[in-house]
Amino acid sequence: MSRHAPGPSKLFAVLLFALTCAVVLGLPGARSVSAQQAKSSDAAYEAQRLAADPDAPGPVQPIPFSHALHAGKYQIDCLYCHSGTDRSRMAGVPPVETCMGCHAQFGSDLEGVQKLQEYWKNQQTIDWVRIHRVPDYVKFRHNRHVAAGVACQTCHGPVQDLHKLYLVPDTKWVNGMPADKLKMGWCLSCHWQNKASVDCLTCHY
Amino acid sequence: MPELDRRDFLKLVGAGAGAAAAAGCSERVTKLIPYVIQPETITPGIPVYYASTCRECPAACGVHVKTREGRPIKLEGNPAHPVNKGALCARGQASIGRTYHPDRFAGPLQRGSDGKLSPIAWDQALDVLAGKLRESAAQTWLLGADRGPTGNEVLARFVSAVGLGGRIVYEPFAPESLRAATAAVFGIDTEPLFDLSKADLVISFGGDVLETGSSPTEHARQLAEARDVATKERGGARFVYVGPRLSMTAGNADEWVVAKPGTEGILALALAKAAIAAGAGAEGGHGALASLAGGLDPATAAARTGVDAKTIERLGAALAKAKAPLALPPSTGLTSARGVATAGAVLVLNQVLGAVGNTVQIPAGSGTKTTSYKDLLALVDAMKSGKVSVLLVHDADPLYSMPASSGFAEALAKVPFVVSFASSIDETTNAAHLVLPDSTPLESWGDASPRPGVRSLLQPTLAGLFDVRSIFDVLLDAGRKLGAEVAAKLPSGDFRSILEAAWSDTAWRDALARGGVFAETAPTGAPGLAAGVAKLEVAEPRLDGDGPFTLLAHPSPMLSDGRGANLPWLQELPDPVAKITWQSWAELGQEAADKLGLVTGDVVVVETPTGRAELPAWVRGGLRDDVVAIATGQGHGVGRYASRENDGQPGEVRGVNVLSLLPTLTDEAGGRAWLCTKAKVTPAGRKERIAFSQASDNKRQRELGETVSLAALLGEGGHGEAAEGEGVGEGSAGEHEFIVPYNAVDDAAATALHRWGMSIDLDRCTGCSACVAACYVENNVPVVGEEQVIRGRLQAWLRIERYVTEGELDYRGGRPARSSHESLGNVDVRYSPMLCQQCGSAPCEPVCPVIATYHNPEGLNGMVYNRCIGTRYCANNCPYKVRRFNWYDYNLKNFPEPLPLMLNPDVTVRGQGVMEKCTFCVQRIELARQKAKNERRAIADGEVTTACAQACPTQAIHFGNLKDAASVVAKKSADAKRGYHALQELNTRPAITYLAKVTRGSVEG
Amino acid sequence: MTPPPPAVSVADMIRPVPTPPDSQANQDILAVMGRPTLPYWLLLGFLVAFVHAAGAVWVYQVYEGLGIAGYSHPIFWGVYIVTFVFWVGIAHAGTLISAILYLFRSKWRNAINRSAEAMTVFAVLTAAQFLGIHVGRIWKSYFILPYPNQRGLWVNFKSPLVWDTFAITTYATISIVFFYVGLLPDLAIARDRSTGWRKLLYTALALGWHGTGRQWKAWNRSVLHLSGLATPLVLSVHSVVSWDFAMSIVPGWHATIFAPYFVAGAIFSGFAMVLTVMIPVRRIFGLEAYITNYHFENMARFILLTSLIVGYSYSIEYFIAWYSGVEPEQTSFWYRAFGPYWISTWIMIICNAVVPQVFWFPKARTHIPTIFVVSTLVNVGMWFERYVIIISGLSREYDPAVWGLYTPHAAELTILAGSFCFFAMFFVAFIKIFPVIAIAEVKELVIHERAHGQGGAH
After folding, report:
1. ipTM of the complex
2. What span, in angstroms and rounded, lies between the C-alpha atoms of B319 and B330?
3. Which chain C residues contact residue B847 at CB under 8 A?
4. What are B24-81's pLDDT values in tens digits?
5. H-run or E-run covering B966
6. Which of B871, B874, B885, B983 to mutate to test the interface with C (most CBs of C within 10 A)?
7. Potential cystine with B319: which of A101, B27, B261, B275 (Cβ 3.0-4.6 Å)?
8. Are the Cβ atoms of A185 and C148 closer than 8 angstroms?
């Protein structure tokens, strides 16, 4: 478990806070129209709670960010935050700035967003715990895969449904051997299928 | 980000970790840390290039700084820059290491009462400096190199505003004698420009223009243009070299005239006379010549120079006959107490030959105007007599680069307060009281003007790595602290704004994008001789001391005046001629050595009136027997790589500083003289292992560095290696009835769009090793250090083999102590770059048990590091021996922080126990492929090139797609007369075609 | 392959041997397995200790990198491969003596086959280790095995190193089985005469052997078949090892003669090792009655024969080098004889081709000290043979710019010494745990001699 994991008491507090907010917000007409005072939806609180859930699979992130909420509910395009993924070998991890693009306005009542604003105030970087990783001698190229029309989900799992992100297991069979996700055989099976290059130098140099 | 280490830095860019881990044992980067604010120019994974200028030497080549995630990872030549036109020499390539050097100062330091340098804050440091200036401005001197027009201007303004004692612009190799000579001969105080590309006969009087001249990259390119066999008639220009030593430049000549050192001027005049006798045109010089070369008929000249009269007459005639002759003056090593006269004589020869205004330009005011050496010596005297209380030193290491006999050390000790602006430790800084680290060229703003019409810009490409400041801003701030009236006299704003203001006459943003403003001026006319000519006293120079040997202190092509000594790549790059790394050596002529009973590796004692040094001897045929030659640059006591610190002996001096042997002599005009002493050489009675990178220069007539005679090339029969009509391959290495002719294209899959191939033109290769340095930086090739080189574990993927003559099947000396096949006057030197040949039927492939090396559909000989288990059979079976093995975890051992920051994230860093080798920069191919694939097309010719080909000043290397018949490489490879393949008879079907060096024979009268 | 055996001895073979409960042979031979003396313990202790020391050096090498060894750029193989080939060679005598001589009905083999087989097993184990010690990344060396994997990768069946892996593993398996099967009857004898833990051990290992006719019949047949199986291996294994070199293009390696040349060399060194080991053993444990000079003389004859083959190969190598007219080849061989490695070369020639010629004289063949000295020298010579082939070959290849030299470093020499200790350790332990001489077969021999009233020589 990552050192960012909050203690149980803290979590309990979060939970309580979330619940009370949910109740309060439940009351009809309690919402104000002003963006500044806008109270976030129950869904947002729920999403945050689930994203912070230490018992859910996957590492606890410094900020309980829910992909299900952003990519799923709000239908924000992956490339909106992960810009550059279609141009670069590497996937763009959104800088704090990008998050603040929206969250300067919205969600200030959410604890996660408050954390975010804290980071922004101190101009501090967010140490996300890395989940999808191939060894350094594998030269994976996001842009080529995006260009080839491979859906992000193919490798990253159904992120739009995940509140808390984790390496969604997936196993393909190669020569009667199981190839787990992000293992070489797993990549190859897809490359074979789509007649993509299986030359060693394509990924290893 | 205060003191940020490599891992943190990589965290900032998440996947940038590519370079951080080694194949196999991959250390994980478990954090993914995005920017807080991502600069819009930066997309992680996509390189951004910035145009800037190289400041390693005054030539001021334009560079493109390749940055990834905001950190420079490689320097490449700027194709738009008129000086280097896209090429970049070894020193330029290696200079990127300065920015990530483990020795760099993290911030300002002050020497405490305990005598140690300890960190202080900038404000504090500035106060200290300001205080000193306030106390004794008039007794404060500024000593350092030229910093470009704007920089010099700011420094001048500072000097005048604060009322400093003065500024000394110090450049150890400054061509002062030439400048003075030009002033004397033409009445213009300037640095002549030599255009070799226009010449059809070049004669260099000890001018090593290809390695250590005023602009090596440019001159190498020009010479190659002038001698291009494809476009020029009958092999193009001829090149004659005059000098005592077979230098790299000499090795590229058609004829080597072994004159006594110091007599170049006499020879020049004799040749001028002979040329006139043979009917040389231009009237200009005749009058002057009469007075100068009165008695210099061939016979007398022969007696004085050691060149026989016939040669003098022949060369004179040749010069007279030549349409566009060009004579080059001596470079640093041969600048004597008669330096001005010698250079003057050469200029007069040019005048006589009508070269001035044609191949020689005398522009009004060019080059770096340095203060005269004698002013510096005056300052030294002032220091000795305690008249200097503060010395500000920048961009120079005088404590190292001044001759010990000048007493600079004592003088410096007498200066109460020494301030150094060096960014990392050097001898002078080691004695400084206050260190205000300047930003490196990659971190600074600035400009340079190597010659009229060429204005080149420097721009910072990274920041925040260390807490350093530009010297200009530091001085300006300190100046402003001295009160309003001083501040008023200083330019306002920071240096960047001052620079922009200075460039206000140009389109600033365009200039930044292009790297400067390049408006080549029209050729100046021939100014005609000035009265000063008559005053030249051309004669043998004064040499101190006695002894059978003349000491030739020639500049090191890699380490230069010592500034390169702390860059590991330059230490490990073999000297182009001696092929020695990391060490100092004394070159001795074969006969002289035999007389002394010395062989290569014996330690000798070299004694001059002013010093004594012990160093191993390299015995060679290519040196006059009355000369002992020692390269500059070694002999540092500080610096991780410059000294022996990295070998675990901190404070131990590495090699010998030849300057400790030189008396302090000046030429007629007070310029610095280098050729100024005799020396005694005696055996020390012990041996030392020399870190040779090459075992032997005897190629045993094998198909390695081939030549073809011009006659054979022109199909005139002749006695060349290649008989009429047939290629070198068949012609040179005996019967080859068992050679199977092949087409490299067949070694790629029929469906593949490319078959990558390369052509290497040995007639253009000068041996300068720029390609080797480029390969090191591009491919994260580790530097292994002296001890490992001695054990034969150099990791270079690309090496330049230096063979002399066809070699012989001798079995002398069981041990391959590098036998020299050189001989006086013989210029048959073959420089042959050797790298993975990407064989079509590679011996390494079938023997690998795990298919870690294999043939890829595009004909590349792939090497999969993470599959390799290290049986090393492939390396045994490689006849070219281009595979390197990681005996240790070199990359972890030999890249101390923060050097790993310059690793190329697109190339896997090899771990312990795996084989590695060249794969034609496959990472570049893959990058180009992405673009091409998205556009559903093949990669166009010239769209991708290897680091070596890109760096080559003479474009000797071409890389491309052999399947594309229109590609340059395909055309070059098709050369039936010069093309051959290394060790052809092994039928390995290499993808590299070598074009044999053309032997043009000595010059006909 | 096998000539029709003389009917008489077949009859001998399948006749169940009536063994008296405590025949002389049993006592003498089992006496060897008696309570170990102090010197024995000291020797064993030293061997174990040294093996551990060498092991530590190896661990350090894995940690630091092969750089601690003497490798240099052109010379990528060194003492480790030399020693590997050496031990594989040693491993040949066992199978040859047990299998081929068995098929040829050379009864005299019975006295020495047990120890020879044991040596085979131990030598193969020793040799196999060097493959691991040699590679750069031992932790990835399993890549060399053709196992189905999710990477969809396969080994390179073109590579001699893969053949090598197969050859060695096969040979190890067969020789262990052969050794064990041959041991069965004696294990039973040992079982019947021992107590305590030994009893348990032998009971387990003897697989319920009671020496019934059926068992003897089955046993004889299996030995016969195993011999048939092992015989081609004797030839194949070292041929394959030789191809590690012959398949390359390195001057001095790339020669068609290598397979026979290496096999002969292997048998040569194997026999030498048997002698070097058995002479002291026989002396110490007083087995003169069973291992007679007659046996030694036969082996001396073998050594003489193989020495001639080896010597012939040396000369042919040089002849071909000259005859081929290939300059790199000629240069390589010139340097081999007169270059930096001339000492190794001449040690090799003198020890392997010259010294054994003394065996032309019956006196020398029967004079034990002479035999011992010669066999030891042959072992030295054979190690240097591999050293010369590998090192001098690599030091002078096609590109003179990268010619180089190699000198073994402390690490390599320690591990080399360690390998001898490793081998000796097993053998010394073996002496005390298993009968050094095949009791049953020796008895068979005795009976056979009774039947014919003459020496076992045919």
Report:
1. 0.88
2. 18
3. 158-161, 247-248
4. 333 444 777 888 888 878 888 889 999 999 999 999 999 999 999 889 999 999 999 9
5. none
6. B871
7. B275
8. no
